[in-house]
Design goal:
Length: 194
């Protein structure tokens, strides 16, 4: 039971932080604001994080919470490609509407220069588990071609999503991430289908 409480406390802090970052900006949010908003304590905060900068690496946890929420809808969607397009559409809309461009760019830049944890590449994340499940389903039902493995599909798909997000950040949000992905991702996925 204590392990679940620890996870809940950590996620309360993470969720409160990202809500505040979105509302007031990263620079204008203090640790005290996060503690107050999360209804936790400074001790709890510093038990999980060295400081506010450590929270940048938790954006992947926020994304995974969204994927866990979306996974319940996957059974009602026919076909692996349609499932991947659904997950992408929902996550990219979430990024555009709930995570500021500045924070997304900070996460990506921190991953590029990090000597330590690169959370975006952690294959134990919900994201990779869902993608692997969908890719295996697509291979088993004959939707994906035989010349690429399920792991190859997962790697390529994740790479494509990171490329789209990175370009959106580099372009300073000059276009709709969701709309661009709706044009590009189906074309990309066609290269893996029979």
């Amino acid at each position: 039971m204590p392990k679940k409480d620890n996870r809940n406390t950590r996620m309360k802090i993470v969720n409160a932080a990202w809500e505040l970052f979105y509302k007031y900006g990263y620079e204008n949010t203090t640790v005290e604001d996060i503690v107050f908003e999360s209804h936790t304590s400074r001790g709890s905060f510093y038990h999980y994080f060295k400081g506010k900068d450590d929270l940048l690496n938790t954006l992947s946890s926020v994304f995974d919470s969204k994927y866990e929420e979306l996974s319940a809808s996957l059974d009602s969607i026919d076909g692996a490609v349609n499932k991947l397009l659904f997950l992408n559409r929902e996550l990219f809309a979430f990024i555009e509407n709930s995570i500021s461009l500045d924070l997304t760019a900070r996460l990506y830049s921190s991953q590029l220069v990090s000597n330590g944890d690169r959370s975006l590449l952690d294959h134990n994340r919900t994201y990779y588990k869902l993608l692997r499940r969908i890719a295996i389903e697509g291979k088993e039902n004959g939707e994906f071609s035989d010349d690429i493995t399920a792991d190859g599909i997962v790697r390529a798909y994740a790479m494509c999503e990171r490329a789209l997000i990175s370009d959106w950040c580099l372009s300073n949000g000059g276009y709709s991430l969701s709309a661009e992905s709706e044009q590009m991702l189906p074309r990309f996925l066609r290269g893996f289908t029979k």
